[in-house]
Write a structure and sequence with these properties.
The chain is an alpha/beta fold and 388 residues long. It is built from 13 helices and 16 strands. The chain has 3 domains: 70 residues, no CATH class; 195 residues, 3-Layer(aba) Sandwich (Rossmann fold), CATH 3.40.50; 95 residues, Helicase, Ruva Protein, domain 3. The radius of gyration is 26 Å and the shape is globular.
Length: 388
């Protein structure tokens, strides 16, 4: 990585977390044939920090010393060094952005941000954590959203779809290696979804659990077969495990525990490797109402409004329609997925009316269409119970 007589500028991010500013220059001189190199960090005040290869001080340490002197955050291909104030400001900024998207999981969201921020500020802390929650409560979207806001990589792996290395199918190590390649060398999260469903494959479960255990070890290495080659890659990404564990009884007030993880079939050794366990709340009808709040503008609502405007339609949503969609989602077993699916079904019915029915008079060149309680009842008829 050392160039001949290379000089580069060192920048830092101020405490406000915006913009960058030069704090000086780094000059690296490599003595060809002598087997050593010298590095000098020259700060704006004229002071210098020097080191050479004989001192066994890595580049990160030198830049860290410069950063601490300037009370700043270094960024030149090296891990950023965050003060407590900077970490706190970043955590609050990420939470404020994420809570506009993730509904009903404020406590869990704070825990996820803390875990991932801990990894960002110290990339060696790749120790895993487990998220447990019912289907459609936002486990995957919460982690993905936090990663997007922090601008780090996110890769989801469907655990039931992988196999041990000696079996047919997508080998676990190969799937992990390919995920790392997609992240392309930057910090990121590997999200192992539906780990509880490994139990359905009892003949492979013990072998898969053993391979997962290897990945959860500190300093783990991924060994994959790519074509005819065996490739090795250090695992420097944060691992997040997630599952519904629907056979176990738990709630945010009575959280999922290590003992429940063991009783669900995982070994004590595996349970011991899992760090923090974050339990998600069941979503309520009020949570679903908040998701459909037009002022909140969640992505699936915003996209619908934009799509209809593109068709020349002004979409008006009645509060009663929102109430009905929220109540039906709350009664379902698939959480937010039922809300999104129901909302999209109702919108499809409105499009059918726009394409084949009589259009009401609009304003400002837009056709005005109303998503009403009647629209929901027509698009999503309730199944009537047969008399006994």
């Amino acid at each position: 990585m050392v160039d001949f007589n290379r000089e580069m500028e060192v920048v830092y991010l101020p405490k406000a977390g915006e913009g960058s500013e030069s704090i000086g220059t780094v000059k690296i001189i490599h003595y060809q044939g002598a087997g050593k190199a010298e590095l000098t960090v020259t700060l704006k005040d004229g002071s210098e920090i020097k080191a050479d290869s004989a001192s066994f001080r890595p580049l990160d340490d030198i830049l860290l010393e410069a950063a601490m002197k300037e009370d700043s955050v270094v960024s030149e291909g090296t891990p950023r060094v965050y003060t407590l104030t900077e970490s706190r400001n970043l955590a609050i900024r990420v939470y404020e952005a994420a809570e506009k998207i993730i509904v009903g999981q404020d406590g869990a969201l704070r825990q996820i941000i803390t875990e991932i921020l801990d990894y960002i500020t110290n990339p060696k802390r790749t120790n895993p954590f487990l998220i447990v929650g019912k289907t459609g409560t936002g486990k995957t979207s919460s982690v993905r959203t936090v990663c997007e806001i922090m601008e780090i990589g996110f890769e989801r792996l469907s655990t039931p779809d992988v196999s041990p290395a000696t079996y047919k199918g997508a080998a676990l190590q190969t799937a992990v290696y390919q995920a790392i390649e997609r992240i392309k060398g930057k910090p990121g999260v590997l999200f192992f979804d539906e780990i509880d469903k490994l139990q359905a494959r009892r003949e492979l479960f013990l072998m898969l659990e053993t391979e997962l255990l290897k990945l959860l070890e500190p300093g783990a290495e991924v060994v994959a077969e790519i074509g005819t080659k065996t490739v090795r890659e250090p695992l420097t990404h944060k691992i997040v495990l997630a599952g519904t564990f629907s056979r176990e009884r738990y709630s945010a007030e009575d959280p999922f525990t290590t003992n429940l993880l063991i009783s669900s079939g995982f070994s004590p050794e595996f349970a011991g490797r899992v760090g923090r366990i974050i339990t998600f709340n069941d979503l309520t009808s009020e949570d679903f109402r908040r998701m459909l709040d037009l002022e909140r503008q969640l992505p699936f609502v915003r996209e619908a409004i934009v799509e209809f405007r593109g068709l020349g339609i002004e979409l008006i949503v009645d509060p009663e329609a929102i109430e009905m969609l929220a109540e039906r989602a709350a009664r379902s077993k698939v959480g937010a997925r039922a809300l999104v699916t129901g909302f999209q079904t109702v919108l499809s019915r409105l499009k059918q009316t726009a394409f084949f029915g009589e259009l009401p008079n609009g304003r400002n060149g837009l056709v005005r269409m109303q998503l009403s309680r009647h629209t929901v009842e027509s698009a999503l008829p309730q199944r009537k119970l047969r008399p006994t």
